[in-house]
Amino acid sequence: MREFTARFATGQEMAEWDSHVTANPSGGNLLQSEAFAEVKKDHGWKPVHVVYEPTDGSQPSYNLVLEKSVRALGKLWYMIKGPDVESVDDMPGIVAANERFVAGAAHGVFAIKYEPEILASDYASGVLARCGLVKSFQIQPNDSTAVLDTDMDEKALLKSLHSRGRNAVRRAMREGCEVEQVPLTEENMRAMYALMDSVGQGNAKVNLRSYEYYRAFWNNFADRGQGRLYFTYEDGKPSVGAYVIAYGNKGTYKDGGSKPRRRQYGDSHLVQWSAITDLKQDHGIVQYDFCGTPPSDQLKNKEHHYYGLGLFKTSFTKTVVDYVGVWDQPLSRAKYAVWTNLAEKVQRQLWVRRTGQPFY
């Protein structure tokens, strides 16, 4: 087991945050980014920047922590999509480093929620449980997700797609479907939000945040050259939209929407193909995350609320990965018990009632 020390990032490190995160052991995650930290800062969370340094002198790990102050309990830390570690075997060292950190410079934290992108397995769960971590509920929609390897030329990439996706892309091309990367004007962003509000809301149970949240999110990533919006049209109006992000060498299909009962077959597939090939050309992505499917063992379960989304995304790739999900580190057992048994439910209800937005 490797040992780690934990500290707050310096001002210089925070100024160069994205370059540090994308150099992490597994390449970082867009939800650890500077752009995302700016979004959450305006929606009830305090961004905290934490650095874990292995005592053997190897590569450090830079991680965004979202902090929420809870009356009478102290501070809750949510390490969204982190920590970024080489393997689950590094987690005992991270957990021990945080115990020392909270006893000193990070005083007042009563619990930490971890959400590492570590592949799920009995072994991984065993390691996390032996660290004293407690399995918690899913927060992000991509604890299971479809991932496409894009580290090949365009011809080979198209050939690598699942036949359903490949045939849909080719048919849309033959029939003259056109996809455009469009600027983030107010009109285009509102059109995108309207498309998101019409896609699969009944079965997918997608809880949309406010338009203002998405506008800030989209602009924050676009301003840094990381995010872009794509449309295809029907009768002169946007009929399919996708907002995608390049962060480091990874691409992500972050937000999508479409008009129901469209005439053009394969239009949504061609939007994705256009985004993927553009991100390959402009950013050199080697992986594209479709951001959320049913777990790999439930892909054929028609009752799963992500079944329809999973059907579309796995028409590109059959590679569906399951991550270990959220695990909590209680730093004060008494306060953590109050939080999980009562305070968290109350806090979430009050937040939703006051803002209409999800708590996390």
TrEMBL record:
GO terms for biological process: cell wall organization; peptidoglycan biosynthetic process; regulation of cell shape. SUPFAM superfamilies: Acyl-CoA N-acyltransferases (Nat). Residues 164-292 form the BioF2-like acetyltransferase domain. The keyword Protein biosynthesis does not apply. It comes from the Bacteria. Keywords: Acyltransferase, Cell shape, Cell wall biogenesis/degradation, Peptidoglycan synthesis, Transferase. InterPro entries: Acyl_CoA_acyltransferase, BioF2-like_GNAT_dom, FEMABX, PG_Glycine_Bridge_Synth. GO terms for molecular function: aminoacyltransferase activity. Belongs to the FemABX family. This is BioF2-like acetyltransferase domain-containing protein. It comes from Kocuria varians.
